[in-house]
Amino acid sequence: MSATEFATHADPMDRRIDPPGGLNVTGWLRWMWRRLISMRTALVLLLLLGLASVPGSLFPQRTSDDFAVGEYFREHPRLAEWLDRFSLFDVYGSVWFSAVYLLLFLSLVGCVFPRVLVHYRTWRAGPPDPPRHRSSDPIVAGDSEVLLTRAEALLRSERWRVRRTGTFVAAEKGYLRETGNEVFHLALLSLLIAVGWGAVTGWHGNVVLREGTGFSNTVSQYDEFTAGRFVNEETLAPFTVTLDSFDVQFDRDPQQAGTPRYFDAQVSVSTAQSQSHEFLSVNNPVTVKDAKIYLLGHGYAPRLRVTDSSGTVVFDDSTVFTQEDSNFTSLGVVKVPDARPQLGFRGLFAPTAAISQERGPFSTFPAPDNPVVFLSAFKGDLGLDAGVPQSVFTLDETHLQQIGLQSLSPGDTWELPEGQRVEFLGFDRWIAVKVAEDSGGPWALLSIVVAVAGMTISLFVRRRRLWVVARPGDGVAVSALQRGPSAAVMDQKALLGDLQGPVKDSIEPQQVKEGRCQ
Amino acid sequence: MIPTQVGSATTVAEFSNSMVYAAMLALVAAMIAFAVAFAVRRSDSVDLRESRRALVAVQASGAAGDAASRALESRPQPPPDTRGRRAGNIGLSLSWLATILLLVAVITRASWAGRVPWGNMYEFSVSSALAILLVYLAVSVRRDLRWLGVFLIPLVLLTLGLATTVLYTETQQLVPALDSYWLVIHVSMAILCGAAFLIAGTTAALYLMARWAQGPVKGPVSQRLSEIGQRLPAPVVLEQFTYRLIAFAFPVWTFAVVAGAIWAESAWGRYWGWDPKETWAFITWVVFASYLHAQSTAGWKGRRAAWLAVIGLATYVFNYFGVNLFFTGLHSYGGV
Fold first, then answer.
1. What is the ipTM of this complex?
2. A204 touches chain B (CB under 8 A)
3. pTM for the whole thing?
4. What mean pLDDT is predicted for residues A263-275?
5. Domain residue spans of chain B
6. pLDDT tens for residues B132-172?
7. Alpha-carbon distance A28 to A21, whole Å?
8. B9-44+81-173 has which CATH code?
9. Is B274 close to A456, i.e. CB distance below 8 A?
10. Are B247 and B200 spatial neighbours (Cβ–Cβ below 8 Å)?
């Protein structure tokens, strides 16, 4: 093994990678494995990974925006169907994306583990024998024995790893470069496992809470719930959360009117053991057991009371209206199945109402300065008994007949043709919260912190070698070797200076091959 | 164009805006000075080749080496390139002036808005321009980068030009989700990396040009480009410079992405969700990781690696302009 390379041990992977002759199966497997773990393959896979990530940003993804995927299907049905065949709405869970990163990590495993072994052995063995003498190596005249001893002492005092024989001193520094490199790659592996672990053991659900209402942590209570493969949905940590109050403040400065300044929710959290009041806001999740509760959005829920012609209250509740624009023009549907005939309302709620020719009713400011609800009433059959699940945000008009339009301010009452009365009592606020548990999170964070540390070390530590070799006559030759520019030459010059010999011109450091996966 | 408004609150903003314009003026002058410096510049590669030949001569002469090197020293030096030097120094001084003006612009804007000046694309662009200049000048203190000015300053001007025309926004308060100390960490790191990536991408492109200039000349355009290429530092110098910048920026970029992930976890309930911004940050990371790996892969060092650095810069720029303007995602409230 040439001493001009850092590898002091014969490395099977340094051999040229040729496909084996003949039809030897193990030979082919070995060849394929070596191909896979070669640096060039890793590089190509890395670039492929970047390329494979692109389509996920071009097409809506089910994981982040299922609704947009549905829109896409409606707008381009034929194209969408084809895109879907190639998992382009599920890029990051697709077979081909997984194939790229799994191959990349397999290549990484095949590369890094042997490298760790070799690095350990190299470290154990100490600096290698000196390279052949080059005429350019500077020479220090004097008694070689004395000079060698002095060089050894000097190098040791500067924390080089030194090996002394009768004829030379070999010194090496910067093992941490390779250590950092390996730590970085192993930490990435750990990161991948952490993310995978989080995906199969984690869950998250979304739920909307009106002021005064709550939910308990069971699957059925969530509007939307996603869980990993290993999650037992029956045994989610038991707790309940109630929204006590919600406060939001909007900016009234004309330049940025309507920008929310803050929105804060007061929630009560109770578990079997304890009950507590928590403060929930954006960027400020509440932790309950292993789950975290995040505040994602908010809006208005107009409160209506419907009384039938006999004076019986058939509906008295607030209904979540969804935000349509930044001024909280909100839309919603109110269903009153207990009225005879059944009643349904399409509603538009404007916290600060205005009406224009073009837009009809809308809101001009997100705060409730002039709250008005605009209702369109229907009577007939809501279709709730058909057994088909219905969205709370849509009204099935097939068996309904429109019976009137009205705008109501808080306290107003609207008398319908058949004697029912609709009262607009005001509004509650609602918040959208996400509850999530991801046990892989902290582990992933730790992995990436270690990875960054390892990477930084591997990029900034320089590995270099020096040799001081006794000359056949008298004196010693000093040669240097390193990867990358200048440091070793500086070491060499410093050592030469310390040895106080006459200095001839310095040498240019040779490029050193480092690492096995090339 | 920047609208002019009356009122005491806006005078601070107007002052900030006029500082940006003043900086642009200084940069135009700096660009001209750098262009002059570059035009009269002697080719570095010629210098290097000469000195290398001399070195070989010294080494070959063996025992007579000392005599030879003395002879080399006493040899008449080529006339010092005073005109180019002076123009280059003027360029550097003007760049410092522009940097100070931009710094004042950014600080006054921040004090007016009462927050870090990275709330929208205008502010991000101006801060990025400042960061590019700061990185350039910081490196300039230790090594001669006057040759780079003529290529880099137009890019800074382009950034500022886009900022003041297309991207200009009156200052706004931050929406609550942005109101976090993670904004300071995440965005400042991203801006710093952007600056380093831009300079590295530029020097990588120049490396490709310098390598190209070494090849055969194939026509009048090629002739001109080749002449420019010959005025550049030697390819190996450009290559090393690019590598060092990326080696510095890569861990910082990783940190910026991780900081973003931590923030995303507390704001949106997940640390990674393949939002377009996240996806492209990841792509940039992957491309620069490839660049670093290419450095130790046979057949990839040199030209291919340089292309990777250029592509890496392109992904960063796309993530900034493309994703902000064309895609909708959770980052879109960064807005114009």
1. 0.82
2. yes
3. 0.84
4. 88
5. 9-44+81-173, 179-336
6. 999 999 999 988 899 999 999 999 999 999 999 888 877 66
7. 9
8. 1.20.120
9. no
10. no
